Amino acid sequence: xxxxxxxxxxxxxxxxxxxxxxxxxxxxxxxxxxxxxxxxxxxxxxxxxxxxxxxxxxxxxxxxxxxxxxxxxxxxxxxxxxxxxxxxxxxxxxxxxxxxxxxxxxxxxxxxxxxxxxxxxxxxxxxxxxxxxxxxxxxxxxxxxxxxxxxxxxxxxxxxxxxx
Length: 164
What we know:
The protein has helices spanning 4-7, 12-39, 42-61, 74-93, 98-118, 124-156. The protein has one domain.
């Protein structure tokens, strides 16, 4: 039988859940990035490098474990804004439609940070989960974008990366 400590998120099961989720995300991040670097065009490779660097930098700028997500994570917000800028640039300059979808996901992350500034009583775990969910979808978006690039190459023989 599980104790209330294990159920309420402060016990071993909670720790294992978080670590498993992080390991799975890292695997997805590495696989989606490798796929984009190997099979993607230049926009997909830029997107992969941006997401990979953003996830890596987030580890370094997050608050220490004891106070992580207790308030607005300013370092993560800055990284999210920088990544958002890169994907907005990609959506304007490239011929691809997918960067605007990922920019929308990153915009949702920025809104979450701002919402915490407005309503600081949000449970830290909810703040963390709300930010994390968009990162999963961004990785899936990159995989689909790379696959679609390959399909265009197969069917058309070419897939111009940039607008004139």
